Amino acid sequence: METWKTYLGVLAVLLQGPAEGVQRTQVSIYYSTLCTDSITFFSKQLWPTYTKIGSIMDVELVPFGKTKQKLPFDGTNSFECQFGPADCYGNIVQSCAVSLLNNSDLSVKFVACYFNDPYSPNRVLQCSQRFGINYNSIHQCATSKTGFQYFHQMGEKTRRLSPSLYFIPWVVINGEFSSENESQAQKNLLCLICDNYKGQMPAGCQT
Predict the structure, then answer these.
(1) Which of 56, 147, 148, 201 has its CB surrounded by the most CB atoms within 10 Å?
(2) Burial of 54 per CB tally in 10 Å (0-12, 13-18, 19+)
(3) Is there a contact between 152 and 71 (Cβ–Cβ < 8 Å)?
(4) Is residue 15, in this structure, part of any structural domain at all?
(5) Which residues form the signal peptide (predicted)?
(6) Are 45 and 185 in contact (CB under 8 A)?
(7) Strand partners of residue 69
(8) What is the pTM of this model?
């Protein structure tokens, strides 16, 4: 297995952005932290694809999945996650990270790192240290009402989907969902992103 150091070395070259005026392929991923299919997707599809063609991708991460929530939201922990309390904790941590970082590249790196060992109690600290992210900010967010608020916002995004998701991870390309794209994303995300990119193909699309 390739090391994280190798991955990051490749990313330093790749993440220089597309040609001026060319829009990146937008990829929105709706998922849940302890969903086996989500874990597989991040490790087998998203991260390998991102290391090759991250420069032409604009990734939005929405950790909520099929969580049930008592509405209207009153600022408290009113969530029931599909895979239990640990799933909720992971979703809230990642909601905090995505919201606080407000940086697609760092968010993808942090979440991909988290998914490499999602059951480890030290994963948040390890991934924060690896990428120079403020661990205390994420930890404080995830253990406070701020984390509930960010998680609620992920739920709002998920509830606005049309059609509503019935499977996770749910992958939306350039703002539109199709069952064909969903199926291909699970098998060959790299090809799907390259096929939907309108600019000059990077080397990663030709492998």
Answers:
(1) 56
(2) buried
(3) no
(4) no
(5) 1-21
(6) yes
(7) 79
(8) 0.89
CATH number at residue 46: 3.40.30.10
Which two three-digit tokens encode residue 84?
Answer: 């239990």
Q: Are 27 and 66 in contact (CB under 8 A)?
A: no
Host domain of residue 31: 23-202
29 contacts 60 by C-beta, under 8 angstroms: yes
Distance, in Å, from the CA atom of 115 to the CA atom of 110, rounded to the nearest integer, reads: 9
Find residue 62's DSSP bridge partners. 30
Give the E-state strand segments of the chain in sequence order: 25-31, 57-63, 68-69, 79-80, 170-173
Does residue 98 lie within any of the structural domains?
yes
Q: Is residue 9 part of a domain?
A: no
Count structural domains, the chain: 1
DSSP state of 137: H
CA distance 96 to 98: 6
Residue 2 lies in a domain: no
CA distance 194 to 190: 6
**pLDDT single digits (tens) 123-160:** 999 999 999 999 999 999 999 999 999 999 999 999 99
